[in-house]
Amino acid sequence: MPPTWRAKEAFPVRNLTILLLAVAPCAILMAQTDTPPGGSLLDIAPPPQAEGESGPDLMPGPDVPAEPPPPRPAEIGDLASPAPVPQPTEADAEALRRAMEEVAPLVRERKWAEAAAAMERHVAQARAEPLRHQLLYHAGTFHFQARNLEASEARFKEALAIIPAAPLAMVNLSAVEIARGRSRDAVVRLEALQPQYIVDRNIAFIAFFNLACAHAQLGDAEAAVRNLAQAIQRDTLRGLANIGDRHLDPIREDPRFQDLVWMAEQAVTPPPGRRP
User: Fold this and answer.
1) Does pTM top 0.85 for this prediction?
2) In the prediction, which pLDDT does 162 show?
């Protein structure tokens, strides 16, 4: 029998997060597409950590081999990669670059409300739809990190009005819905995205993880464990690092959850005598 798993003993339980730019306190994940100058300052996958808090190792590591996604039905359309976006003009690209440069210092210092306010100013000035989509997306992410969930939801929905079914915006919006207690809405949104067909492992991981959180909140342990297994299959170390998410608390004592965590730990544990 695998050992009884106590996530709270191994990982600090964080609050909900959005994977599009970085995972905030809970593991609800958010994703991002653009990297500001100087590195991925907006990567939401690693949750913001309190001063002096040692966070999980999110570096790439051994994963459970993932099965290739099944053939995608032709009538579904291509959600395997982010929705096609009209090519921005040079002026739009420069405007986005300036916006990201302005918020970069604020993101480094985790001044999320100020970063959101700065991005809102750029949104107000933008006219081209491809540029507005990007700016709205980032504004939504910063509002989420600042815990202004109403504004975050509004911005993600505006971004989706420009590019419907854009995977990153859909995944991040699901995180907001879970955070606002609307887990059923998140399930509907993420299942419409059909993450089993998404080739990008980062987006697929976040979609499955958020589905697991949503189903756990709805009391469907079987669906929660099934989707968590899919997330762990795509990134085992990241799955284990976020296993303390409080939205998974309803299934934490379920033997299926404990077995899954135990098997994932075994998959990344070096055999005796072999250095990691």
Assistant:
1) no
2) 94
What's residue 28's pLDDT?
A: 52
DSSP-derived letter for residue 179 is H
The CA–CA distances, whole Å, from 118 to 39, 49, 155, 240 equal 19, 23, 14, 34
User: Residue 72 is which amino acid?
Assistant: R
Is residue 27 one of the residues assigned to a domain?
yes
Kindly report, residue by residue over 28-56, the tens digit of the pLDDT.
Answer: 555 554 333 332 222 233 333 333 332 22
Evaluate the CA torsion angle 112, 206, 200, 264 in order and state its sign: positive
Residue 50 lies in a domain: no
Is there a domain that residue 76 lies in?
Answer: no
Residues of the chain with pLDDT under 70: 1-87, 273-276
**Number of domains into which the chain is organized:** 1
Please report, for the domain that includes residue 143, its CATH number: 1.25.40.10
* pLDDT in the model for residue 154: 97
- Which residues make Cβ contacts (< 8 Å) with residue 122, sequence separation at least 6? 95, 98, 99, 102, 135
**Per-residue CA distances from 109 to 24, 106, 112, 136, 273 (Å):** 14, 5, 8, 21, 42
pLDDT value for 245 = 93
What tokens does 217 get? 């909140």
Contacts of 188 (CB under 8 A, 6+ apart): none
According to the model, what pLDDT value does residue 270 have?
Answer: 78
Angstrom distance (rounded) from CA 182 to CA 164? 20
Residue 70 lies in a domain: no
The predicted structure's pLDDT at residue 272:
72
Question: Rounded to 10 degrees, what is the CA torsion of 165, 167, 172, 174?
Answer: 60
Find the domain containing 186 and state its range.
Answer: 7-45+89-268
3-state secondary structure 121-154: HHHHHCCCHHHHHHHHHHHHHHHHHCCCHHHHHH
